[in-house]
Amino acid sequence: MAMTLNDDQNMLRESARDFMASEAPVTHFRKFRDMGCKDGFSHGLWKQFAEMGFTGILIPEAEGGMGMGQIEAGIVLEEIGRNLSPSPFLTTSVAAVEALKLADKAMRDRWFPGILAGETVIGIAIEEGVKHRPEKIACVAERSGNGFKLTGHKQFVVQGTSSDMLIVAARTAGAVGETDGLTLFAVDKDAAGLSMEAARLVDSAMAAHVKLEGVQVNADAVIGDVDGGWAVLSKMLDAGRVGAAAEMVGVGTGAMDMTFDYLKTRKQFDRVIGEFQALQHRAAHLYGEMEGARSIVLKAQSLMDEGHAKAELYVAAAKAKAGLACNLAVREGVQMHGGIGMTDEYDIGLYMKRDRGLNEFFGDAYYHADRVATMNGY
Amino acid sequence: MSDLETFRAEARAWLEENCPAEMRTPAKGDEDVCWGGRNFVFQSDAQKLWLERCVAKGYTVPDWPKAYGGAGLSPQETKVLRQEMAKLGCRSPLNSFGIWMLGPALLKFGTEEQKVHYMGQIARGEIRWCQGYSEPGSGSDLVSMQTFGEDKGDHWVVNGQKIWTSYADKADWIFCLVRTDKTNKYQGISFLLFDMETPGVTTKPIKLISGNSPFCETFFDNVVVPKHQIVGELNRGWDVAKYLLGHEREMISGMGGDGGVTSIGAAMKAVLSEEPVLRAQMALFDVENLTFRAHGERFMDEWKTGKAHPAYSNLMKYVGTELNKKRNELVMSIGGTQALEWESERSNGGSKARNWLRTKANSIEGGTSEVMLNVVSKRILEMPGA
Q1: What's the CA gap between A75 and A277, in Å, rounded?
Q2: A193, A328, A369, B193: most buried, per Cβ within 10 A?
Q3: Same domain, B183 and B224
């Protein structure tokens, strides 16, 4: 595949760009932040996402969606990132949909219509520690009656308390540290024994700590195969990772463009500070880093869409590179803005906070660089 | 099957039939590469045969028009051919500054006669070229160059000195920037071609920190150059030079050892597994390397469809050369004390150390990293100031 967007993809980019800039710009994010919104996003905006067709972008056409791939989902995510538009798109429409695509028809029929309508939100309950360690999942699912009984805890469940359903990864066999023996479950938010405590994060997103105290689920709550959840989990995580990488390309590019505009207007020593070579070289270097990130993300998306054997390696590299580049963009952004970069009034600091959250989402740059090394045989 | 897939199958079949087995192994170093030219000595019959077969097929320059010695392939077909060559491990049949640098400039600025004559010679591997750009007082500030061609009616008489002329002592001809108007800095330079055997041309190799001498000082003492050996218009050689530098930057940015995505980490596992910090550096390097390859692929696809910014090759040159330096720093660290050996057979004549030192020139030759950043900042990012 050529590493350029085709006409349809360019059209999607234009409509996503116009939509986010007009319906969900940074002022929209500020509004919901400042009102102390318990969800951290607007349900009205989520409905508008559905009207645009975005919520079902990865759902097959036969099931009412747009039947598109990671490149297209990434196009929407980049615009989300550029505008800091708060929504459940990454968790619900990307990660959860990729997992549900591997579920049986009854479960897809149960959840896809709500996602397509912009009514349903799904939380991803994977993390149990402060760092991403999916193979270390210790939450237990014991066979019980017609199904399973789940016991354990989860954290960093983004929009957990706003969710209608949680995708919970639990151990049905094997020991902590093994990839075999995991199973994914669709757990209703109202299930008995399930409790959540919402925490506001640095980027104003809401994430939940979840307690599972003997939560009873039926056998039909299993997504994929019992004990074979790693395959579904990997698919879901990789979609979420490459999606977060695409969003970071948007966050980084947004921060970079804002910073370059500032360099061209701010005057000190009787000249525009963009004339100083010390800043020009750093700007050019940053541009190169962001362009590299954009390239590896596109490469990873296209390999995923092809179902290529190397997709996993490239997704890891893309999450790592996008994380490093976006992080550089927001750090340079705040520094080059000087004092006003430290103020809440200016947007650049909001980009720094968003970068921090996305970097941690489904594994940071160091975690993924380590995976690249392992996959490369050392 | 699409036309492109038909072409892929045909190219594959042709390569399997025509590429000798010995030419499907990596070259054993610079001396093992075919550079062509009047005085080139083939290292093996297979090397000669592979060149001859590619010349006949137009595959030394697959994307050049057939009339100038190429195969007339489209950019997509050329990419497919290179992919199939890489899969079989086929060596490049011919390395040449003529292919990488002069040819594209001739295609854009040359007369029809020049294209047929010089590009044909380049495609057939008959002439080895060198590039006369830098001068002792004109490095990054190339346009300040002083080598002067005095107008003598039907010819110029050239006097002056060039430096960092790659392989000038082995080249047959030179493409050279010569000042033809002392009153106009930018529009006073002409792009001339001449034979290195012309009386008055002498070369002197420069010994580098690697111990090797790939570069020369080149002196011109009353060198006669006929008027028809100019490319482009009189005094507009800077346009040709800039265009050609774009190609040179692409070429240098592509220097990455195996030129591919294969990690060097696996082969170094024994050391890396005992040094977690070094392994981490290697892992981060692999992320950057995969990124650069994807970046290069995207850049070439955009370049071919006219979507890339004209100054973008400057960015690729910067990123690629800095990455290659980093790679060689890691190779030295992983190699430890053995990589310090300079002459032993065990160290293949100090190849790691010499390669490491050679790569330090990558971010200097063809425009320094600092100049590349200047160009990116001004032309792509449109930062203000002179």
Answers
A1: 33
A2: A369
A3: yes
